[in-house]
Structure formats: C-alpha cells, structure tokens
Amino acid sequence: DDDDDDDDDNDNDNDLIKTKEIEKIKESEKKRKENENKRKEAKFETQQSKIDDIPIIPTSQRIKLLSHSRGVISLALDKSGSRLITGSLDYDIRMWDFAGMDNTLRSFKKITPNDGYQIISLEYSASSDCFLVACANTQPKIYSREGDQQHECPKGDMYLVDLTNTKGHISHVTKAIWDPTNRNCFYSSSNDGTIRIWDVNENIKQKKVVKSRNQRGIKVGLSNCAITEDGRKLAATGKDGSIQLWTTSGSLTRPEKIVPNAHDKEVDATLIFSENGNNLFSRACDSTLKVWDIRMLNSPIHVELNLPNYFSQTNVIFSPDEKLFLTGISSKRSEGKGKLIVFNRATFQKTDEIEICDGSVISLLWHEQLNQIIVGGSDNSITVLYDSQISKKGALLCATRNAKKYDPLDNILKEASDYAQGMAGEPFVAKFEKEKKEKKENKESIARPKQPYTGQRAKRGTTLTQHLLKNLAKNNERNEDPREALLRFADKAKENPFFFGAQSSPIFDLAPDPAELLQSTTLDNVFGTLITNTSNST
C-alpha cells in the first residue's frame, strides 16, 4: 500500500510539472504575439509618419514662359536661381532673368549653337560662371554666363577604328555633365559608344576615353550618363537596354557592373543618382521607371509601370529633401494632358498627379533655394510652379511686376534736355564719343592696307585671269585698220620728225622716175628700139 501511495504522488508531481510547462509555453506564445503586434503597429506608425511627413509641393500658382517654337527638352538654373536657360527642339537656347523680367515674361537672349541640331542637355557649372551645352552633334560647347561661346570640343576622325585615338566624338552627343569634384572637367556620352572626360584648362582637350561594352565585349552606343555627387561612380545607359557602371578611381577600361536587360532593347533611358549614391533611378521610353541599388544591381528594387513616355529626354528629379521623386508622362494632344507624377520615396506610393500642359511633360527641375518646380512641355511652354507662402524669389519677382508703360512725355523731356545742350537733339557726350570714334576709324582706314573684297561684290571676280580677260575684251586693236592707225600719227610726225624724215634722199632706190620716162619716151624712139632689137635677133 505504501508503494502504491508513492506511485500516485509521483504521477501527481509529473502532472503538475507538465501543466507548468504548458502554461510557460502559452505565456511565451502570448508575449511573442504581443511583441509581433507591437512591431507591426510601430512599423505602421513609422510608415504613416513618413507619409504624413511629405513636404508641401509648391503647385498653388504657376506662370508660363512662351518663346520657343517647339518642345522644351532641357532646363538649367544657376546656383542662386536668378537665371534660367532652356533648350528646345527648335535648335535654340533661351536665357531668362527672373530679376529683370516683368509680367510679359520675355527672354532676354536667344542663342543658336548649331543650326539644325537639337539642344540635348544644359548644365551650369558649380560657380555658375558658365554653362555646358550638348547638341545633337559631335561637339559639346561651353558658354559664358552672358551667352558668349568660350570653348568647343574638337571633332573626332570617323575613319579611325580605335576610338581612343580620335580627338573627339564621331557620333552625336547624348549627354554632357560637369564633374562634381573638379570644376575644370566634364563628361560627355555619345552614340559612338564612348564617354569622354574633357579638361577645360587645356583648351578642351580630352583626358580619358571610357568605352562601353556589353557582356560579349561588343561596342554599345550610349543614350545617357550620370555621376554621383562624390564623383566615385559613373553610370550610363546603352542602346541595347543595358545599364553599365564604372568606378572613376579605377582604370575605366571595362564596366565594373553590367545589367544586360535593364530596359527594352533600342530604347533610350535617362539616369539620376540619389544624394548618397546608393540608389539609381532610370526612366525609359518603354513606359517604366525603375529604382536600383548599385550594391545589388542584378534586379531593381522597385518598378513603376504604365508611365507613357514618348521622349528620350524625360527625366526623374528629387525634392530638395529627397523624400519625393517626380517624373512626367506623355500623351498626345488629342488624347489628354501631360501630367507630373509625384511618388513617395519611402513607400513608392503615388502621392499626387498634376496636369501641366497639352501634350507631354518632358524635362523637370526642382531648385532647392527657390523651392519652385520648372517643367518643359511638348507644347513649346515652360511652366513654373510655385507657392507664395513657401517659395522664394524666382517667379515671385516677375509674376507681379507690371511692364513699364510707354509715356510720350518721356521722349519730349529727353529731346528738350538735348536741345538745351545745344546739340540739336544729340547729347554733347554722345556726340563727342561719336566724333572720337569716327576719327579713330579714319586713322585706321589710312594706316590699314586695302582689304580684299568680300561678300556679293567679290563674286564678280578679282583673279588675274579674270582681270586679263576683262581687259582683252576691251582691246579691239586686232579689228582696227593699220593704215588708219598710222595716219592717226601723221601730224605728230610732221611736227616732230624723230622717227620720220631722218633720211634726206633715198639711197637704195635706183629705179628711174616715172615722170622723166614719160617725157623722154616718143613713138620714134619706141619704133627705133623695136627695129634694133629685131635686127639683133636675126
């Protein structure tokens, strides 16, 4: 009996231990679920805070700049945001000064770098003292802040096989960007499959040539290029749909990484790096926008579909704090309006959609200091979006400034002041400068030898052959009677017989005078002579 009681006690102890273990398991499972729920709630709260922390987009007001005759595909603002330059499919660059414009919104200068070539890209230097221009030809150019050409890249030799031996590109340039770490260098990508690094100090001489290759080592044309803000990574998009990546500190002989099918083949794409250089955004004409992590470049971390794009220059931009990224979509004018699409970078959710113009939204720019968005459209317009509460300067300076009205009294007062100086409507200083300039020009014209004819007058001919033929045509001596020509000098010969009449009597003329022969000749003499000749002959 005692043994049976001990067995029962052991069984009860085992049951108690099992129940305690089961309770511990249940409590741990309960705590795990509670922690998981808390983690989910915290994650949702962080996502919600990120969504709620989206910066305000300055879109409450807008102005339109209308000077181009075709679509605007490139934009650039200087560091202070006072000057805007725009490039178009009409081959022109327009320069705008927000501080000098009134509400008529007219550009103050027009530049045509190469007539017949579209303006592919524009970019101001870090100091804003010049800007870089890439047209759809082989020679990028540098212009001063006032729009005067300073440098032009040389053209390459298209008959050389090795492209490193040419002085420049042999096919049209697709992008030109400044080096963020060296103000005297810039990069240019081209359809010839090279990225060339140029040095401005040496009168635009290329420092290095970077060749693009696919995975089989075949040359690939490039449609765009981009560089990180620290200048360490260089990326380019190929015509075969690939994305290629280089490290600038390396040899640059071959791409470090290649994504062969990043986009569809024969499709152009634009690139932009994030500020930290880890993310790369690509926008292509296959209606997609892809986000890449360059540390894992095998596949994109996000793909946005159904974004129509008809232009190879359609780009992606960031908000000043990089919490948003924006791009434009294309549409035909008969089908709808071009729109600006805004995405949250943390969640990749579409946060806003803004109608801009009739047609397509192509080029975008969001200036940090102005806090204004500039949009170039296919309807020849440049739309500046701003908000009077959060934006600064820029469009605010000219949107409310009225144009100066014409007042006839101003001319009357000016003429009266001029007449008061006794110069018949011309100020004394201006007249003095004019006379000084005329004297200088007269002195230069006397000292300077006669310049050859140019322009329309030169087409008449000034060569020696033409001069001789012209004079020979006037000389008609071969058609003139020589007797009349000699008789023209008869009077001179009588007055001054220098060559005529020097011989007093003929020396070699031994023939008898015909008059004497007639006087001495008679019929008897003639018959006598005949008889004499007859007898002698017999």
Give the structure's gist in a few sentences:
With 538 residues, the protein is of the alpha+beta class. The chain contains 9 helices and 28 strands. It has a 4-stranded antiparallel β-sheet. The protein has a 4-stranded antiparallel β-sheet with strand order 2-3-4-5, with no helix packed on it. Strands 6-7-8-9 form a 4-stranded antiparallel β-sheet, with no helix packed on it.
Give a verbal description of the structure.
- The chain is of the alpha+beta class and 538 residues long.
- It has helices spanning 2-52, 395-399, 408-420, 428-447, 464-474, 482-487, 490-495, 514-520, 523-537, and strands at 61-66, 72-77, 83-88, 93-97, 109-111, 119-124, 130-135, 141-144, 149-152, 173-178, 185-190, 194-199, 205-211, 222-227, 233-238, 243-247, 257-259, 269-273, 279-284, 289-293, 302-304, 316-318, 324-329, 337-344, 350-358, 361-367, 372-377, 381-386.
- Strands 1-28-27-26 form a 4-stranded antiparallel beta sheet. It has a 4-stranded antiparallel beta sheet with strand order 2-3-4-5, with no helix packed on it. It has a 4-stranded antiparallel beta sheet with strand order 6-7-8-9, with no helix packed on it.
- Strand 14 and strand 15 (233-238) form a beta hairpin.
- The longest helix is centred in the first third of the chain and has 51 residues, at 2-52.
- The radius of gyration is 47 Å and the shape is elongated.
- The model has no long low-confidence stretch (mean pLDDT 82).
Give the tally of β-strands: 28
Broad structural category: alpha+beta
Spatial order of the strands forming the largest sheet: 1-28-27-26
Which stretches are poorly predicted, pLDDT < 50 over at least 5 residues? none
Give the overall shape.
Answer: elongated
Helix content: 10-25%
Q: Sheet with the most strands?
A: 4 strands, antiparallel
* Rg, alpha carbons: 47 Å
User: Which band does the percent of strand residues land in?
Assistant: 25-35%
Q: Give the overall average pLDDT.
A: 82
H/I helix tally: 9
Gap from first CA to last CA: 217 Å
